Amino acid sequence: MKLRRTSAVAIATVAALGLAACGSDGGDGAAAGGNKVKVGIKFDQPGLGLKTGATYSGFDVDVANFIAAELKLEVEFVEAVSAQRETLLKTGQVKYIVGTYSITDKRKADVSFAGPYFIAGQDLLVRADDTSITGKDTLNGKNLCSVKGSTSAQKIKDEVPGVNLQEYNTYSLCVDALKSGAVDALTTDDTILAGYAAQDANKGQLKVVGNTFSTENYGVGVKKDDTEFCNQVVTALKKFIDSGKWEESVKKWLGPANYTPGAGNPPTPTCQSA
Amino acid sequence: MGELFAEFNVFAAFGMTILLTVTAAIGSLLIGTVVAIMRLSPVAVFQRAGAFYVNTVRNTPLTLIIIASNIVMAVNLGFNFSKDFSRNNLIWAVIALSVYHAAFVCEAIRSGVNTVPVGQAEAARSIGLTFSQSLREIVLPQGFRGAITPLGNTLIALTKNTTVATAIGVAEISGLMSEMIEFRSDLLLFIFLIVAIGFVILTLPVGILITYLSKRLVVKR
């Protein structure tokens, strides 16, 4: 009986500690006026937003860090996978998202965008010695790869009917299939492709075709109708571009793939909402 | 909710789920029965081989087996059944699902065989039946009838496990689900609801049928 009482006290103590820990944790996150904010990025896109161990690298990470420095915020990165981005912003779990987030009318119904800060487009990644593929019109009889459920996969099905499309759940499997020759091209935004081509493991083996067939305006996602914050982000983005840091960052992360940003870059960001 | 049905071919995707389930159920029943016979056989080599198969496959994640079937077998070693990716992936997915679930089918059959009293096998041997004859005529027919409930559990697990096939691009319902989320994230809850209800419609009748059959076909002793 004595033992049981002791353990009951122990359990109560642990529970109280746990609750207290939760409370203080929640307090930090909820303190909107504080300097520490959560920022959503991609964790799995080399050259854009990549988590290796405890460090984050890539163009989107540079953008996110610059905004934070301008607005005097302390950043904690969290993963914002494509399907969850609107929810993360709506529920306030992240302050802003910099993760190859294309500005579309459908998304503007849920969130506001500061941007574009980069204009990308759907393109093709091929083996470096492949000269037979020069754009989407040369894909007849070729094997293609993309990610299941992505906009790029849907677009290529619409643009090139009857294409032999392999769909995986990650781009890295596509890169593997491309290098082994099982597929002839990988399609998605040219920035993502350049990021893979610039990876050490793929350097010199792959190239971005450079003939885009869509326009993706990347924006910084913020909570809908938070105009004040949105405008602050726009000012920071303008400074990022004007100071030359934009060009420096693009060159650093995507340059090794011999990639140059397409027409219209660098763009003029504005605050956009529906 | 109607928009989702108009915009996406939900029924075709569930059709693919059913196709995967049925073909892999047949495949895993065949492989599983063979492995079970190996484990029940008096030959030590077969017993060890059967036990090795079950312990290896059962303890490997299904995602790994399915992705390996594509990346290792099809992409890197070039074992392809068809030039057409969707067909090739479907066949590899069926093989991977069959191989994986065969381990569970084997153990379900062994548990069924355990319900057959030793006296049955002894009686069979004493009237002069060989090992394979006694297995075929006496032990396995009773064993399968005793194994219906665990086999049913495996079938239901298989139905839900077909969703892993999306990892290599088979166009079944979970692949369509990620597509629907990408394009209609405004209808997120309805998307989950459709998929969840669809699976209940698929698995609930199987469960009821299994309970009915296991009562009806049980060997009364």
From TrEMBL, chain A:
<keyword id="KW-0732">Signal</keyword>
<dbReference type="InterPro" id="IPR051455">
    <property type="entry name" value="Bact_solute-bind_prot3"/>
</dbReference>
<dbReference type="Pfam" id="PF00497">
    <property type="entry name" value="SBP_bac_3"/>
</dbReference>
<keyword id="KW-0813">Transport</keyword>
<comment type="similarity">
    <text>Belongs to the bacterial solute-binding protein 3 family.</text>
</comment>
<dbReference type="InterPro" id="IPR001638">
    <property type="entry name" value="Solute-binding_3/MltF_N"/>
</dbReference>
<feature type="compositionally biased region" description="Pro residues">
    <location>
        <begin position="264"/>
        <end position="274"/>
    </location>
</feature>
<protein>
    <submittedName>
        <fullName>Glutamate ABC transporter substrate-binding protein</fullName>
    </submittedName>
</protein>
<feature type="region of interest" description="Disordered">
    <location>
        <begin position="255"/>
        <end position="274"/>
    </location>
</feature>
<feature type="domain" description="Solute-binding protein family 3/N-terminal">
    <location>
        <begin position="36"/>
        <end position="257"/>
    </location>
</feature>
<dbReference type="InterPro" id="IPR018313">
    <property type="entry name" value="SBP_3_CS"/>
</dbReference>
<feature type="signal peptide">
    <location>
        <begin position="1"/>
        <end position="20"/>
    </location>
</feature>
From TrEMBL, chain B:
<comment type="similarity">
    <text>Belongs to the binding-protein-dependent transport system permease family. HisMQ subfamily.</text>
</comment>
<keyword id="KW-1003">Cell membrane</keyword>
<feature type="transmembrane region" description="Helical">
    <location>
        <begin position="60"/>
        <end position="79"/>
    </location>
</feature>
<dbReference type="InterPro" id="IPR000515">
    <property type="entry name" value="MetI-like"/>
</dbReference>
<feature type="transmembrane region" description="Helical">
    <location>
        <begin position="12"/>
        <end position="40"/>
    </location>
</feature>
<keyword id="KW-0472">Membrane</keyword>
<feature type="transmembrane region" description="Helical">
    <location>
        <begin position="91"/>
        <end position="110"/>
    </location>
</feature>
<dbReference type="Pfam" id="PF00528">
    <property type="entry name" value="BPD_transp_1"/>
</dbReference>
<keyword id="KW-0029">Amino-acid transport</keyword>
<feature type="transmembrane region" description="Helical">
    <location>
        <begin position="187"/>
        <end position="213"/>
    </location>
</feature>
<keyword id="KW-1133">Transmembrane helix</keyword>
<keyword id="KW-0813">Transport</keyword>
<protein>
    <submittedName>
        <fullName>Amino acid ABC transporter permease</fullName>
    </submittedName>
</protein>
<dbReference type="InterPro" id="IPR035906">
    <property type="entry name" value="MetI-like_sf"/>
</dbReference>
<feature type="domain" description="ABC transmembrane type-1">
    <location>
        <begin position="14"/>
        <end position="210"/>
    </location>
</feature>
<keyword id="KW-0812">Transmembrane</keyword>
<dbReference type="InterPro" id="IPR010065">
    <property type="entry name" value="AA_ABC_transptr_permease_3TM"/>
</dbReference>
<dbReference type="InterPro" id="IPR043429">
    <property type="entry name" value="ArtM/GltK/GlnP/TcyL/YhdX-like"/>
</dbReference>
